[in-house]
Specification:
Blueprint lengths: L9 E11 L5 E10 L11 H9 L6 H4 L9 H7 L8
Antiparallel strand pairs: 1-2
Length: 89
Amino acid sequence: MDLAPANGAHCGQQRMIFASNAQNRMFFIIEAQVPNPAPELGIDGCLPLAQFWLDQNAIYDPFVRGQPRVVTTSVRTMRATCPTAFVSR
């Protein structure tokens, strides 16, 4: 969630990096700006997305990690469980 502005206009950037050694060494990198799903909340609107990516660290099986999931955690729940997750810069 890097490069997110303090006002939460968006939630920063995400990167996907694909690598292949099929024909020498090749990388394909996609970078995209992540929209804030709740811009009226400012940077706090990005909390559920940040938690989603943090939770990926607990999934060790790459097949399971690759399964589609929906971000359902509310900002209110995030604030209750981790009140200092996002502090304005």
